[in-house]
Amino acid sequence: MVATVDLLSTSTAARAAGVSAESIRAWIRTGRLPAQATPIGALIDPADLYRALALREAAQRARSTSRASPGHGSARAGSSPPSARPGREKT
User: Which range (3-7, 17-21, 87-91) has the least confidence?
Assistant: First the structure.
């Protein structure tokens, strides 16, 4: 016996993921989320959605970890201290 999987519409996938339907469509267009094209719209396998969400979460964790690593101060690269900025001369 073959198990069947209920596929999700873009709006249902968006609700499940906590994002907009436009985000889901963008993920499909860019290849981040596989989907089956149908006359009524894209259909998404829940396993593919959860896999895409896990990859997104891992990427977000990696970005937040790299920002908090030693040697990365809060000052932006190329920024000057307030006293060195034009128009901020001491009087």
Answer: 87-91
